[in-house]
Write a structure and sequence with these properties.
By secondary structure, the chain is an all-alpha fold. It is built from eight helices and no strands. Helix content is 77%, strand content 0%.
Length: 203
């Protein structure tokens, strides 16, 4: 587990450095430039999250609930940053205020549920009580609800972009959007995988 966490730290650090070193003149004051900084922030947050997990050894010391809280505290904003980056590439003029702000209630809701589950003074702090399990499920639901919203936003904007391109070009444009479809699909798969990983023996 520690080797995987260390590898993730290195990979995220390299990705962050790569994004920081992109030529500024090619991306300044454009939607691509904004997407670039969103991706940079997301990979930097992931590097910090993996570093904290690697340094604190929360799972190996029995503090599984604290590890889950730490994971959600970072994964939720990372998801938002990734999704906003995709939206700014697909349809930069259609990013809504809800797209930007939905993180706030879901983040506080998820961490609030976990904090409530941990605030059981009758049992040891690291114990996995029934109340904590229900609160973990509620926190996972908050995360998945946010992911579901972003998935439908991405797929809807991609559909609108495909329709716009089809009306503009007199040739097949599916190949122009294939990488976007892959990105959205990967984000959805990650969304489904994250809760089972962090609520079991994952990172």
């Amino acid at each position: 587990m520690e080797q995987m966490q260390f590898s993730a730290i290195v990979i995220m650090a390299i990705l962050t450095a790569k994004l920081l070193l992109l030529p500024e003149r090619t991306l300044a004051k454009t939607s691509l430039g904004r997407a670039r900084w969103l991706l940079t922030a997301s990979t930097a947050l992931l590097a910090i999250q993996f570093t904290l997990q690697y340094a604190l050894h929360l799972r190996s010391t029995g503090h599984v609930a604290m590890a889950i809280m730490l994971n959600l505290a970072f994964f939720m904003p990372v998801t938002t940053l990734f999704t906003l980056a995709i939206l700014y590439v697909i349809r930069p003029n259609h990013v809504t205020r809800l797209d930007k702000l939905i993180l706030i209630p879901t983040w506080f809701g998820a961490l609030g549920f976990l904090a409530y589950g941990l605030a059981d003074g009758s049992t040891p702090f690291e114990a996995e009580t029934m109340r904590l399990k229900w609160c973990e499920a509620a926190a996972g639901f908050c995360y998945e609800a946010m992911q579901l919203y972003y998935f439908f936003r991405n797929t809807n904007e991609l559909r609108m972009l495909r329709k716009t391109l089809a009306n503009y070009y007199d040739r097949d444009t599916d190949g122009m959007l294939s990488w976007m479809e892959v990105s959205i699909s990967l984000l959805a798969i990650i969304a489904l995988m994250v809760p089972p990983i962090i609520f079991s023996n994952g990172w």
